[in-house]
Amino acid sequence: MSGDTAPRVLARVASVPRSAEIVFVMVGVDDLNVAYHRPASDVASDTRRIVEALSPRKVVVQSVLLTTYPGLNDAITELNNRNRAFCATGACRYLELNDLFSRGGLLRDDMTTDGVHLVRRAYPLWAARVKALAGARLRQAGV
Description:
Elements: H1 6-12, E1 22-25, H2 29-32, H3 40-54, E2 58-62, H4 70-91, E3 93-95, H5 98-101, E4 102-103, E5 106-107, H6 123-140
Parallel strand pairs: 1-2, 2-3
Antiparallel strand pairs: 4-5
């Protein structure tokens, strides 16, 4: 959802069907931008609450995508580091995506038209990474 924030996602967690085996989560760029300018630590706390609320489902926290804005990327990197560390506790799985779309700490110009959102041809790359992980997780779960 455009302009979505971690608290809004948390408020909708109850609507995720119990039958969902795996839930993929990516949230934070809108929280961190100039409109809300929330600290990365607060967004990471909300992400932890989202993961906990989704239990007992398997949750994959995807890295928040970098932008072409270095100042915003500092906060995104901090959030991603916090989320990666939280997932390392075993509470969730962390899926890094920035290696697909970024170079030198910035979203590649050929992957965006506005510095934040991906171009259409980027989505199949993302989908392939998600499908590969989801397939491996479902096989492990015997599904």
